[in-house]
Write the structure tokens for this entry.
Amino acid sequence: MALFRSKTKENDSDPVQLEGVALRYGNNPDIFSDLSLTLPVRSLHFLTGPSGAGKTSLLSLLYLANLPSGGRLRLFGQDVAQASRAKRSTIRRQLGTVFQDFRLLDHLSVFDNVALPLRVIGAPKETIKNNVTELLQWVGLEGLFDALPPILSGGQKQRVAIARAVVTRPKLIIADEPTGNVDDAIAERLMQLFVELHKLGACVIVATHNERLVERFAFPRLHLERGTLSVLPAISQPSTRAV
Amino acid sequence: MNVRSFLPPVRRSLMGGFLSAIVAVLIFISGIALTAVGSISALVENWNTSVTGTLTVQIIGSPSTTVSKATAVVAALRQLPEVKRADIIARERIQELLKPWLNDDKLIADLPLPALLDVELNVPSALSVSHVTAAIKAIAADAIIDDHRVWLTRIANFAQGLRYVALALMTLALGALVLTVAFATRASLTEYVHVIEVLHFVGARDAHIASQFSWRALRQTLWGGVLGLMVFAPALAGIAWLARRIDVGVLPPVTLPLPYWIGLGLLAPAAALIASVVAMLTVRRSLSNMV
């Protein structure tokens, strides 16, 4: 698969560095106030925690929807608060984000939704055609290339959103509940996609409530609860337990 | 820059053809105003060139003395370098000019008419008029000299006023265009905020996102402009037809000068360009509120 060919350079800066990061919206209390964490290349972490713990808020910092209200956040070595708007756009091009609510464009076909990040960076037509076709086949959406998102099921939309997030081979993949609307077989296949991308050098963060998935794919967990972020070891070894 | 549109088609937009329709009306108004400015300018210019260089001289008295004085004045004027032409207007011609007003041949024939001279100057300056006046007064002290300036100045002032009104109308139409485009673009931004967010998060530059709206505003305004001109063209033809029916003695024939034709042709592209820039600036300002 073309998507899985070239590898990320080993000497890249750590994709994610948080130093005492705080976040609050307006004059409201801090959602969290002192998060510190470094995530290297070629890593995969689950982000867990109870509902309302701030997982989505933390992810929103990583995909640059918000800036920290305190501390320092570096993505690929760049302090995002200090980076220019153009620089932030460049950082975003190295990110792949799967939103919990998918955020597909209803007027674009499945193919065009997935092709969007490639078109934005000006990729050649042939590359777009090949990569998008392969990826849509991988996520099991062959035959739905021309379909519009409103006619898709929740699970199909989720797969389109995942395909769009990874089509540019991003160095940092942020997925918010990427398997929330699919059955276990599809969930495993989609997780396998993230695992493959992480093996090729990407830093992957998967926020999930799916405990079986966390157990099945034995990767370390970032656990966010009461404003504290803990790094917990994998629950079990990869591929040793059935989902 | 990739200008492939990621926005939904205009027909699906809440604004639909609103911008094009408003622009069509504004271009129609601007076309009328521009034509008015051009026609009035041409009219004033026409009067200036055809009237300011001429004098009408009346020599009053008994028919025997007026003719001899008139002949002497014409002979003297023809010697002056300031005078291009000096002629006596034939009595029959004067009677003919009076006929529409009096409509009585016998009365006109009995009227004690003054001798009228039509004088054309080489250079229509105050100095020329003063030299010529002195030469006329030397021969016929009671001659009445009309250099048309008083009435021409009043008409020119009135025309100038109309011109300013037409220019104000054009400025208002332009202002309305800018405000309409800004409003329509902001409405589009609200409607398509989800599209903008997705483009933003996949790394589209501000210029790229703004260009999406800018191109759309350009196309919609250009279409509206063409529509406005299509309505304006028959209106212009109608006005021209009505103007041609006016007696040439009241209103000299007016041709819209070439620069104004070019201006009319440029109305739609200029409006499109302005709309494009306004949309670009509106979107960029709005995007600057995003991280």
